[in-house]
Design goal:
Chain lengths: 224, 448
Amino acid sequence: MSLELRQVLKAYRTPDGAAMTVLDIPEFTVATGEQVALIGPSGSGKSTLLNAIAGITRVDSGEIRIGGTDICRLSEVARDRLRAERIGFVYQSFNLLPAFTALENVLLGMSFGGKASDRGRATVLLERVGLGQRLHHKPTQLSVGEQQRVAVARALANQPKLLLADEPTASVDRANQQTILDLIRETCREGSVSLLLVTHAGEVAEQLDRVEQLTNFNRAGAAK
Amino acid sequence: MNLATIAWKSMWQRSLSSTLTGLSIALGVMLMVSVLVIYGIVDNTFSQDSINYDLIIGPKGSPLQLVLSTVYHISPPIENLPWRYYEKWKDDPRVAHAIPVAFGDTTEKGGFPICGTIREFFAIDYAPRRPFKVKGDFLRKPFDAVIGARVARDNGWGLGTKLKLVHGGSDGHIHDEEFTVVGVLAATGTPHDKTVYVNLDGFYLISGHDKPFREAIIREREFFGEPALPEDELNAMVAKLEKRYSHENHDHAPGEEHFHDVSDLQKEVTSILIQTKAPLAAPLIAGELKKGLQAQAVNPIVPMRQLLVDVLGSIKMLLVVLTALIVIVSGIGIFVSIYNSMSSRQREIAIMRALGARRSHVFTIVLLESMILCLGGGLLGLLLGHGLVFIAAPIVETRAGILVDPFAFEPVELVLFPALFALATLVGFLPGMTAYRTDVARTLSSAA
């Protein structure tokens, strides 16, 4: 599923009342099945961009087309549904729910898409990330690397067509970093999933199909 | 995973506070249920549905005491009425049944009240459309006894058991005469269960139960407002009666079972149970007796309803209000518990929203938590409340003389759950709205 951004503008209001533009993107695209690394300095709007693409943050103007659908024109409920059904999101801080086991966290990724939770698929996903023996462990009982693997499995639970990853390897050690990256890339390739991965690490970025510097296409970032 | 499972999991994340708030609801509901059930039992016990007599005629005095002593056996009798007075009512054309009863004595074992009466007592349903059922027979011979189900159970008595009576009053004298159990009543859930009925004929044959002639003559004349007899006339009458009823004036073989006649003059009854032929006759009779000085006729329902409404009704209302307040305070506890948890749960909610949960989903999850706590606590309280009634039943029975059905259910309990549902909605709404309004991007970025 392709991703296209056109004339996207997003500004925040600062405490003194002034408008601060965070995103000013004339055009940006990710082709279906393409794996793109997004790099840029802190505060350049990478997370805001991912949230805007996921429909979590509303942009002020412009188009964000996912598989041809402009999510800026959708209602909040429709954006939630799109996110639940077609988008996967991996966070740097994993964002696992502490009350739920690894398996339940993955099942949670299927819970809001309107389809019945598939326990079998969730188990397969966790086995695939090497956590077949840790299905019923809670996040606090898992290592950092294992937690991130659960987060990846959860992001893939709803069979997304677009995977957004916000520094998914930043909190893990080098060995785990490569394992997680391989996992993400491999699963995206298998399902022709478009990947937009934010990273600071050059060795991570260079393994993807394309590397984009946010400041090159975000005029707001470039202005800083 | 459905929303209820998610709510349940989230709730158990704070298992201690969830358990405590759920328990506080359970406690409130338990108290409310037990108050309602016990009051319902008391109300039913003292209602028209449980008494099948139109009137109780007894000596002048407290109507409540007359009813309590005659129907519930939980108060001493007021005084006695002459046998001739009972016969007057038996022959009254407006009366369908007039049943004499005599109280005062108790059983030697267990201290159950003794009621001297006639066989006809059992021919009348103990409550509308509920006839007495007996294993054995009703009273036939003078020293026959019929015992209630509870008496049989507690004393381990059955057909053929011999029993002795302890004289009423403070002396505690045990009568020599023995009665034989000829019938065991099936349980009725009424005071009949804990009563021993003896044949009134035998009751009068017990030494001390027949009044001395002199005293009986004076008292009967006083009762009917007849002028006192001159001393010589009184002495002659006593002598005549003594000659007729004394032991020396009849023959029997040694050891032969025989019963002496007791003069009607010497017989007294504690009260008379009346069933009238027409419903209107009861208030007419009551009105007539109100004018005189001899006796009173009381509709057994009236003083009991008065007691229930005036005294117990207020107490019930007070208790219901108090327990309702407990439930409301517990509801506020749930609100505080959930609301306080919201700040620490913002991230959890934001994660769910990022996974595609709609605002309505997270609102529902929080509301469901409130529902689980309120309704789960309510269900537990309902069970505990009935458990409390089950435990309290024998205590209430012993102390108040009221038979409590441990499995009694009050229809008003059905209102509890819609009320708890409303409470859950109310206390879950504001935290639910907090969840609804969670700013996903800001919460996730601040938590990162």
